[in-house]
Input
Amino acid sequence: MPAPAKTSREALIVAALDIIEAEGIDNLTISRLAREVGIKGPSLYKYFRDRRDLMGAVEEQLFADVTERFLAADHADPMTALRRMCFAYREFALEKPRCYSVLFALDELDTPQANEVRRKAIHPTLKHFETLYGEEAFLRNRAMVGFLHGYVSLEILHGFRLGMDTLLSFSIGVDLILAPHSSEVIKRAAEMVGTHSGFGLKANGAA
Output
């Protein structure tokens, strides 16, 4: 039986994300997705070659969702924009913890467009770092991503157990990452690892 006319690749990806958030990534299969949308499993192969192709589409959509949150939080003032984007990132992760948790766990995008998808996701923050800090922009962006991912991952896992105000400590961490005086920290770190030859965006880096 052919897939109903209302079925689309986009609708199937949304349904896949719903399954991940409700049941976890391990329960997302071609057959489970087919049951979710009310069609027969073979019909899904019109849209996805196999589960790996489906996972790649899920990964791409998650990066697109993060990009959308960044763009919605944008502001004319670079520092204000970056701070707002950090909070938008945290909000996304806490709203969709299971989907967020697989964002960096998946590695299914193997098309020529894969790095472009990831670059698009970091562009809203990277452009503001470039305005503020020039050649330090890429390292600052990477440090920010590392802080954000580590912090919200701990929140998702309920890793902060000493009764602290997690929103306040997150805000302090964001301010430390974005602070102008951290330039000296970046330079010292680069010197220690022997890479103080430039801070620009590397061709093979995406986050």
Q: What stands out?
A: The CA atoms of residues 87 and 167 lie 9 Å apart.
